[in-house]
Amino acid sequence: MHAQLFPNTTVLVVFEYHTNSIQPPTKPSAQMKVKISLINTMLFAALQAGVSLTAAADPNVRVCDTTPTPMPILAIKHIDCSIPNSPSSVNRAYVDQNGNKTLQRVDGRRIVNCDSAGTCAHRGEFMGNAPEGIYGITTGWYLGIDTAGAVVAYKEGTGPGYGGNRYEPQATKKPSSSPVDVSKLDVVCMATAVFNCSINGQDIEDQDLPKYLPLVDEKDVKKQGGNCDSVPLCYDKNMMLLGLNKDLF
């Protein structure tokens, strides 16, 4: 099967490397533009005609990744629920036993452990309820679940932990039988702790990327002289985009 090239489609991929000393991402020093090569028959199942691309519907909710982050930002393999570009440190108010309030400078991101009972904590501080596991969240947020049972992070002061409603994810519409004109799509991925991809300026959650781009096998790509070094994308030997590395989804 031969991929058909859409000459007007552009993919922009930017890489950022983080050390254990968390720093806000800096402006990339270089940008690489390559043209997209997709297979029409796969678009029928992967793309949605006439449907706006999925974006974050609620600024007070962060839908957690479904797989452990491929580039741990906190030196521990974890499910990432943090906000992209979280600050390296923040001032956080604490009240002691006498009612005195103090401000402490703390990390902007934190590792949260949830036990078998679903109780989550960070260094003794209650951080919400979620299935057993290790999660990374932004300071000032807590863990919970949405109406579909998926793990999400809620901003403190909002959500079920404060008497509010659980987040209701947008309903997934069935793919249309008509193909999308992908020549008008601009795909941008900011590879940090998460993939941070967008299409036509609309943010796409990592787990939703396969709805719009096909999955390819890294072994097959390498046999043909291509590579999957540009996380999460794979390219042929001419740097034409083939799709997403299926090992990451």
Question: In words, what does this structure look like?
Answer:
This protein is mainly β. It has 2 domains: 4-52 and 171-248, no CATH class; 61-162, no CATH class. Helices cover 5% and strands 37% of the residues. The protein contains 2 helices and 18 strands. It has helices at 40-46, 218-223, and strands at 4-15, 32-38, 61-63, 79-80, 89-95, 101-107, 109-114, 119-122, 125-129, 133-138, 141-145, 151-155, 186-191, 197-199, 202-204, 215-216, 233-235, 241-245. It has a 5-stranded mixed beta sheet. It has a 5-stranded mixed beta sheet with strand order 4-10-7-8-9, with no helix packed on it. It is elongated. It starts with a strand and ends with a strand. Mean pLDDT is 72; it is low at 1-56 and 172-183.
Please specify the SSE layout and strand pairing:
Blueprint: E1 4-15, E2 32-38, H1 40-46, E3 61-63, E4 79-80, E5 89-95, E6 101-107, E7 109-114, E8 119-122, E9 125-129, E10 133-138, E11 141-145, E12 151-155, E13 186-191, E14 197-199, E15 202-204, E16 215-216, H2 218-223, E17 233-235, E18 241-245
Parallel strand pairs: 1-13, 4-10, 16-18
Antiparallel strand pairs: 1-2, 3-12, 5-6, 7-8, 7-10, 8-9, 11-12, 13-14, 14-15, 17-18
Keywords:
249 residues; mainly beta; 2 domains; five-stranded mixed β-sheet; 37% strand; elongated; disordered N terminus
